[in-house]
Write a structure and sequence with these properties.
This protein is of the alpha+beta class. It has 2 domains: 70 residues, no CATH class; 31 residues. It is built from 3 helices and 5 strands. A hairpin with a 2-residue loop joins strand 3 and strand 4. It is flat and about 45 Å long.
Length: 113
């Protein structure tokens, strides 16, 4: 189970639902679109549903629930994750460099070069 932090609230969802919500939110942000989704949640020991409005400005994060997912075996330095994130950062920086050299990035001067 995961605690999905959305706005100022927290809902408990499954790991798979949390992953799907994150992936969909990224896709929506990349497309500049929004959507409302209804997800199954656990609240006060009962199951129900919660509506989420997802879009380019959505800020959310998930944390593991204490009783299910925390363990001393988790590698907090996760070398593979760090390298993946650094690789993604380099790719994005390369895209910005390419866009800047092609004149597609707006600069502080207020116009396109």
């Amino acid at each position: 189970m995961r605690e999905l932090h959305y706005g100022t609230g927290v809902i408990t969802v499954s790991f798979d639902v949390c992953s799907a919500v994150f992936d969909y939110t990224v896709a929506l942000a990349n497309a500049g679109k929004s959507d409302r989704v209804t997800v199954p949640v656990m609240a006060g020991g009962a199951r129900g549903f919660s509506n989420l409005l997802l879009g380019p400005a959505t800020q959310l994060y998930c944390t593991a629930t204490v009783e299910d997912d925390f363990t001393d075996e988790v590698d907090l330095d996760d070398v593979k994750l760090v390298e993946l994130l650094r690789q993604k950062t380099r790719l994005l920086a390369g895209s910005e460099t390419l866009a800047a050299s092609s004149g597609l990035i707006e600069h502080d001067s207020g116009g396109l070069e």
